[in-house]
Specification:
By secondary structure, this protein is of the alpha+beta class. It has 4 helices and 6 strands, in the order αβββαααβββ. The strands form 2 sheets. Strands 1-3-2 form a 3-stranded mixed beta sheet. It is elongated, with a radius of gyration of 22 Å. The site of one zinc ion (ZN) has 3 residues, from α3.
Length: 160
């Protein structure tokens, strides 16, 4: 998948990873491809050890572009055969100067806007829900069942 123009391309990432591999794991002949993932949003990067592929989250690095090298250093440790984030990983992270855990991504944008048919109170959600208005009734009440007013994604309001 092609990288957006504001972030380095996959060849550049592979070159950066290679330079780091030679520096920190000389003689280990670590050869991994580096790919952008547009879907990944739960982690900054993932190392597919058997497939010799490192995937970086485009969403994450679009928010934190300065973290690309940090993420590559982290995934390089996995590529060197240290899986998981136990004491060995933590020691290597210290040696390579990278973080063990990535920053949390800012919350996903809301997708749906619902409104109460009685009081017009608006509720924003990330997924489809079937709620009744909490302001009008503390219990489920069909009279105050929320009505879908907008789907922000279909309106172009959210990144995939
Ligand atoms: Zn990791
Ligand atoms: Zn209401």
């Amino acid at each position: 998948m092609a990288a957006p123009p504001t972030l380095p391309g996959e060849d550049e990432l592979a070159g950066l990873l290679q330079a780091l591999a030679v520096r920190y794991y000389p003689g280990a002949a670590i050869r991994f491809r580096v790919e952008w993932s547009r879907r990944m949003s739960r982690s900054a990067g993932l190392c597919y050890y058997r497939r010799k592929v490192i995937r970086l989250s485009w969403r994450y690095h679009a928010v934190f572009p300065a973290e690309i090298e940090n993420t590559l250093r982290h995934e390089l440790i996995h590529a060197a055969g240290i899986l998981g984030h136990g004491p060995r990983f933590v020691a290597e992270a210290r040696r390579l100067g990278c973080d063990v855990h990535a920053h949390p991504l800012p919350g996903r944008p809301w997708r749906y806007v619902y409104a109460c048919p009685a009081c017009d109170q608006q509720v924003r959600t990330r997924r489809r829900v079937d709620y009744s208005c909490g302001k009008c009734s503390r219990r489920w009440d069909a009279r105050y069942r929320l009505v879908l007013k907008a789907d922000l994604r279909s309106a172009g309001g959210e990144l995939p």
